[in-house]
Design a protein that fits this description.
Length: 376
């Protein structure tokens, strides 16, 4: 508690000290992934210099990584309370606070293209009235989204068939993945991704579902010697960039524009790096003694059936019964339309052509954000 209170005072002092006469405003950012993780490296650490250049030296981003400033589950409350001015947050960690976000996160199990989903999430959360109201309730301002490469299974023992997975204790990222685990007779375990290594090492977990880059970035290949390449979809709950409402209001229009433009480019760089890191770690895994296998026909068919018959209905049911939203079906339909829009905009575009992808995202989304009214 003393640490958090001290950090809050430091953060508040650093930001409030920068008024109209100050040469530079310092933004305290926090993301709890390690420095080597793409969401941290390309998303935050590599954002520092472009942001300073775009703002003509007026904005400086100071990044705290890991749990140096906030524990994983506190990246919403810490942002809302001003301990940090900008954070990453995993929305499934605080479902009751972010019901609309958690409804949409259910759909991720059937979505694979992390570049399209990063753009669609950013678009929808910036512009949809229900999402804007969700952020307004917390006095924070959404600035940009993300999406992971497909989640796969990293296990202590071989998991290829339905018989193999039955009874396995699997770390799952959210409600829909937990429901799928139960549907195949596995036992979903709800722990933060920071605890995957320890859980696998001590035998408390049999498998962990996460993107393949964690084999390297979290050294999971030391404790998970079997990887099953079953596509469990993309995780995008929460946000990559959201800002404390008061901190956003203090920024000039020019500095808001500099921040949004820098974030627009960083979203593309992060998505490319995330997929590249994931593919590279999986390719390197056999050299680390890890067996990489394809799921058996029965396991794959079960997932396919689940995605086409259960996932969407689950999202709407969660919105209706668990979160009691006014129109969860409309929320899902609007999001699906946004995903289709970005699938069309990015159709045929090389997913490693950063310049082309940045141009598409900037022209079709970020250049259209009214910095004078956004977040009001």
């Amino acid at each position: 508690m003393r640490k958090l209170m001290g950090a809050a005072l430091v953060a508040a002092g650093l930001f409030s000290a920068a008024g109209p006469a100050a040469a530079q405003t310092e933004i305290i950012g926090s993301i709890w992934f390690p420095d080597s993780h793409p969401l941290t490296r390309q998303g935050y650490l590599d954002l520092v210099k472009p942001l300073e250049a775009a703002s003509n030296g007026q904005l400086r981003l100071r990044v705290f990584t890991g749990t140096a400033l906030l524990p994983p589950g506190a990246h919403l409350s810490g942002l809302r309370d001003g301990i940090a001015q900008m954070t990453y947050h995993a929305g499934t960690y605080t479902p009751s606070d972010l019901p609309e976000d958690n409804v949409l996160a259910v759909l991720g199990i059937a979505l694979q293209d992390n570049m399209v989903i990063s753009a669609a999430v950013s678009d929808f959360y910036l512009n949809d009235p229900a999402m804007k109201e969700m952020f307004k309730r917390h006095r924070i301002v959404f600035l940009g989204g993300y999406a992971t490469p497909p989640y796969i299974l990293m296990c202590r023992t071989k998991v290829e068939s339905l018989a193999d997975i039955r009874g396995k204790r699997i770390r799952m990222p959210g409600a829909i993945h937990a429901e799928w685990a139960r549907s195949v007779g596995a036992v979903p375990v709800n722990v933060p991704s920071t605890e995957m290594f320890t859980g696998l090492e001590k035998g408390q977990l049999d498998c962990a579902a996460n993107a393949g880059n964690d084999l390297r970035s979290r050294s999971l290949w030391d404790v998970a010697k079997h990887v099953t390449m079953i596509d469990l979809g993309s995780y995008f709950a929460g946000w990559q960039y959201a800002m404390n409402g008061q901190a956003w209001q203090r920024l000039s229009a020019a500095n808001r524009r500099a921040l949004l433009d820098s974030i627009s480019d960083a979203i593309v760089d992060t998505a490319i790096a995330y997929q590249t890191e994931s593919d590279g770690a999986i390719a390197e895994a056999p050299a680390k003694g890890v067996a990489v296998i394809r799921p058996g026909a029965d396991l794959q068919q079960h997932l396919t059936t689940f995605n086409t018959t259960i996932a969407r209905d689950t999202a709407i049911r969660e919105g209706t019964e668990r979160f009691r939203l006014r129109d969860p079906q409309g929320l899902v339909q609007r999001f699906e339309a946004t995903v289709a829009k970005w699938q069309g905009l990015m159709q045929g575009v090389d997913r490693k052509d950063a310049a082309a992808l940045k141009r598409i995202l900037r022209e079709n989304l970020y250049s259209r954000v009214d910095v004078a009214t956004h977040g009001s």
